[in-house]
Design goal:
It is elongated and about 90 Å long. With about 400 residues, the protein is of the alpha+beta class. The protein folds into 2 domains: about 240 residues, FAD/NAD(P)-binding domain, CATH 3.50.50.60; about 150 residues, no CATH class. About 35% of the residues lie in helices and about 25% in strands. Strand 9 and strand 10 form a beta hairpin.
Length: about 400
């Protein structure tokens, strides 16, 4: 008889943690994965390095999660950053702490993280079957009694759906889980790309392609009003803007683009200097190099690659000698250094989104157990839930913690 105490759908970080925890409590566990191997998406996280988690304490951590980070208090109190670090350490993966509280494996290899998790679940006798796509949940009297996958019936009273969202669909997260949840009577908040690069109009970004900026401030303007800002690192691409601060701000931008709002991002290249201090610096440099041409001292204030772009925008004669640059022109230079503008036309697709916003509404899931409030014995974990966070290891921790809580709750 094909009967199991717990069946987990999806063998990513949320699914593996759910299966492992249920097995630790003595359950007979089956994990079904539709791809040919487990953890495909985990392998590409952190550009293949795997940003395991973040060192932020729970109170601060939940402020980086949207739209309802408080929903994770119980999950985080049961299994948090120090717990995943310890679990991985027990299976041979040492972690190192980098700036921004980001933990990475010392080996810089996401494959090592996946190997450790697979070793852990295997040791607990969790059975993983790849190449199995779940077609439907079997529900009787509002209770899970099994599921159908690849035409076979699997009997169980507990199903944990951990299929991911829709980002990086080539790894298997193409929205299948939403359909299963819909069958069970759940609503789905429209999935949108989150932590996604942004496309700009014009050729400025294209001309700066490959240029990486550190310690800059990006500000989002919606219909002329300031809507958010972030400080740190960004990169110019052939289509527009990317990098950590752009990805973080994309959450605001994606929503507004779908509302057809006018969206602009300005880059402050000198966030450490206010207008007055920056003006004094410009004045000093122009005076000290009075006989030099303006084009030759722009590189004092800018990366070399930006100089021709600046000249084009400024419309000041680059051959002008510095002592001839007046206060009006200096104001232009100052304004551009503090407000380099980009009109945002689109966001990139799910293929390039790190995470998905939307999914199962948090008010349809018990925060104490991760169980559906509609169907008994049905649980959710990871990206399929309408929870997404900023870049920095936060999203993976949501996956581990919700997986752990679901696995823990479904076994008495």
């Amino acid at each position: 008889m094909n009967s199991w105490d717990v069946i987990v759908v999806g063998a990513g970080p949320a699914g593996l943690l759910a299966g492992g925890r249920a097995a630790e409590k003595g359950a007979k566990v089956l994990v079904l994965e539709k791809m040919e191997r487990e953890g495909r998406k985990l392998l590409i996280t952190g550009k293949g390095r795997c940003n395991i988690t973040n060192s932020a304490p729970i109170g601060e951590f939940i402020t980086h999660v949207y739209p309802n980070g408080r929903m994770l208090k119980k999950a985080f109190s049961q299994f948090f950053s120090e717990d995943i670090i310890e679990l991985l350490k027990n299976y041979g993966v040492e972690s190192t702490l980098e700036r921004g509280g980001r933990y990475f494996p010392a080996s810089n290899s996401s494959a090592d993280v996946l190997k450790a998790l697979l070793k852990w679940v295997k040791q607990l006798n969790v059975k993983t079957q790849c190449g199995y796509r779940v077609e439907k949940l079997i529900v009787e009297d509002n209770r899970i009694v099994g599921l159908k996958a690849n035409g076979q019936i699997f009997n169980t009273n507990n199903v944990i759906i951990a299929t991911g969202g829709m980002s990086y669909p080539a790894t298997g997260s193409n929205g299948d889980g939403y359909e299963l949840a819909r069958q069970a009577g759940h609503n789905i908040i429209k999935a949108r790309p989150a932590l996604v690069p942004l496309e700009t109009t014009g050729k400025i970004a294209q001309n700066l392609q490959g240029l990486n900026l550190r310690n800059v401030k990006a500000v989002v303007w919606i219909n002329g009003k300031k809507a958010g800002e972030d400080f740190g690192e960004m990169i110019f691409t052939h289509f527009g803007l990317s990098g950590p601060i752009i990805l973080t701000l994309s959450r605001i931008v994606v929503e507004e683009l779908h509302k057809k709002s006018k969206v602009e991002i300005t880059i402050d290249l000198k966030p450490a200097l206010d207008e007055q201090k920056l003006d004094l610096r410009l004045l000093r440099d122009l005076n000290e190099h009075g006989k030099k041409k303006l084009v030759n001292i722009l590189s004092f204030w800018l990366p070399a690659k930006m100089v021709p772009v600046f000249i084009e925008i400024l419309e000041i004669d680059p051959q002008k000698e510095c002592h001839q640059v007046g206060s009006k022109e200096r104001k232009q230079i100052r304004h551009l250094l503090k407000n380099l503008p980009f009109q945002i036309s689109h966001h990139r697709s799910f293929k390039e989104a790190i995470i998905t916003s939307g999914g199962i509404p948090t008010n349809e899931i018990s925060s104490k157990t991760m169980e559906s409030k509609i169907i008994e014995g049905l649980y959710f974990a990871g990206e399929i839930i309408d929870l997404d966070a900023e870049t920095g290891g936060y999203n993976l921790q949501i996956a581990y913690s919700t997986g752990w809580l679901a696995g823990d709750s479904c076994v008495d």
